[in-house]
Write a structure and sequence with these properties.
- The chain is α/β, with parallel strands linked by helices.
- It contains 22 helices and 19 strands.
- The protein is 41% helix and 23% strand.
- About 4% of the residues have low confidence.
């Protein structure tokens, strides 16, 4: 009798182990990387209904434990100052800006919902029909505290419209969150309040009254990474889930919230394809690697001449991000991208051997003195095209070609720099950043500034219209050009001018 029992017990144990293995396999790979880590999310109380469902679903799919702290947006900010956490989701982006100024939040935000304030009354209340009715004698109002997003927003808009002082006399009670003031109307302890319409939609006994001054100033609820987060990739994994059109946004819509027009599709590990002009590589390559680590994504970057990149796109390549060496190159593929953001200017300079033995100091000198001068291809490289345009504008190109001084080379800027160091050339026309990217170059060469407006180029980055990750691509562009990114550009010979 014992042997069959032991066999039966063994079979049960095997089945249990198989079940556990299948459950683990069904969870995302992301959870397996650090199963013991927990995340802390500070969330506005008015967003509790959809967010609680989103976090429940997220935890089920990933196995990650998320601790949520609900409160008024301002009260949460005070709590964050005293404690650590990973994400902050207030009901108004202004609180994110406050957190950033305090050094508590990162620069980037991810919009998750759009909020509209309205007057909230019970369905049988007929004496209140518009904002002016809130000023009538005897009307009892409940308002949120100034620290709550709706309380701060309502007072600011009413003050701008000259209505606040008239309405304040009827405020009989103030409460810490939007949920509390709506409950006051539900219970009949006040006649009305002003609250986010999506939160009030959870109470069928209530009705909302649209107010034009509020409708004209809708607010975005955005989630942001806190500087105290010990695992930014995991925290942003959750943030992306909350904001994804096919994940968190479905819960927001089901709860009556409007959602942003632009949002990302959900993917465990997004894979991005970035096209970039080769001369930008020294300034952005390391930052892209940092972005990958920060966001938990994979960025494949193709560095080439902008003319070559455009040819590849016209032949069918579909990058999700394009960083051009000159803004005119974006024009060739503008129908594929959003309007670009212009960032640091670069300059065409004359690179000569140290002490400049040929005494080449102007464009005219290139035609009158015998020298070997390298110019890049105008069809493959942005700096080549800008050089040709500059030479034509200044009436130098034809004379330079007739002098037999110029050598049109199908080479990148770094190759021309290497040839200058090797003594194979008397001069080269290229970007200042090409020269600055090589720390040892100045031991062998000098930079001669041409000092002409048409020698200046403007770099531009843009997001592909068809990418499933427009928000993440936008964050990539901002990450490359924020204060830390700016230092990289300045260190490589760029000046700075961001739209």
């Amino acid at each position: 009798m014992k042997k069959p029992f032991i066999i039966l017990l063994g079979l049960i144990l095997v089945l249990v182990l198989c079940y556990i293995a299948l459950q683990r396999r069904g969870r995302s790979d992301f959870a397996d990387h650090s199963p013991d880590d927990e995340l802390t999310l500070y969330c506005a109380a008015g967003l509790r209904n959809p967010v609680s469902k989103i976090i429940e679903q997220y935890s089920e799919e990933t196995g990650c434990t998320v601790n949520i702290i609900y409160n008024g947006s301002g009260a949460l900010l005070s709590q964050i100052q005293l404690a650590q956490g990973d994400l902050y989701l207030p009901a108004n982006i202004s609180y994110v800006r406050d957190a950033q100024e305090l050094g508590l939040a990162e620069e980037e935000t991810i919009p998750v919902a759009v909020l509209t304030a309205k007057i909230i009354v019970s369905k049988n209340n007929t004496k209140i029909q518009c904002i002016d009715d809130l000023t009538k004698p005897g009307v009892r109002l409940s308002f949120a505290n100034k620290s709550a997003a709706i309380g701060k927003f309502t007072r600011e808009v009413l003050a701008e419209d000259g209505m606040l002082s008239k309405i304040e006399t009827n405020i009989t009670v103030t409460k810490p969150t939007v949920n509390n003031i709506i409950e006051d109307v539900m219970l009949g302890s006040v006649d009305a309040t002003i609250a986010w319409d999506a939160v009030a939609a959870n109470f069928p006994e209530l009705r909302t009254i649209e107010v034009p001054i509020f409708t004209a100033k809708k607010r975005e609820a955005c989630v942001t990474l806190l500087t105290t987060s010990k695992n930014s990739a995991k925290a942003l994994h959750l943030a992306r889930y909350i904001a994804a059109k096919d994940k968190g946004q479905m819960s927001f819509k089901a709860a009556g919230f409007a959602t942003p027009d632009i949002s990302d599709r959900w993917t465990e590990t997004p894979e991005l394809l970035a096209f970039s002009g080769a001369m930008l590589k020294p300034a952005i390559d390391k930052r892209i690697q940092e972005f990958e680590k920060r966001e938990g994504c994979k960025v494949t970057t193709v560095y080439e001449g902008c003319g070559t990149l455009i040819s590849q796109m016209l032949a069918g390549a579909k990058p999700s991000f394009y960083f051009s060496c000159d803004k005119t190159y974006l024009d060739h593929a503008q129908d594929r991208f959003t309007e670009g953001t212009t960032v640091p200017p670069d300059e065409i300079i004359l690179l000569v051997p140290q002490s400049n033995p040929k005494q080449l100091v102007s464009l005219k000198d290139l035609t009158t003195k015998q020298a070997k001068i390298a110019i890049a291809s105008s069809t493959k490289y942005a700096f080549g095209a800008v050089t040709y345009k500059m030479l034509i504008t200044n009436g130098v190109l034809q004379a330079l070609e007739q002098s037999n001084n110029s050598m049109v080379l199908d080479r990148k800027g770094d190759v021309l720099v290497a040839q200058m160091q090797a003594g194979a050339l008397d001069a080269a026309l290229l970007y200042r950043s090409h020269a600055m990217a090589n720390p040892s170059l100045m031991e062998h060469c000098d930079i001669i500034s041409i000092s002409r407006q048409d020698a200046i180029t403007l770099q531009t980055f843009a997001t592909a219209n068809e990418t499933p990750y427009p928000r993440q691509i936008q964050r990539l562009g901002n990450f490359l050009t924020n204060d830390d990114g700016k230092k990289n550009f300045l260190n490589h010979g760029f000046t700075w001018e961001k739209d």
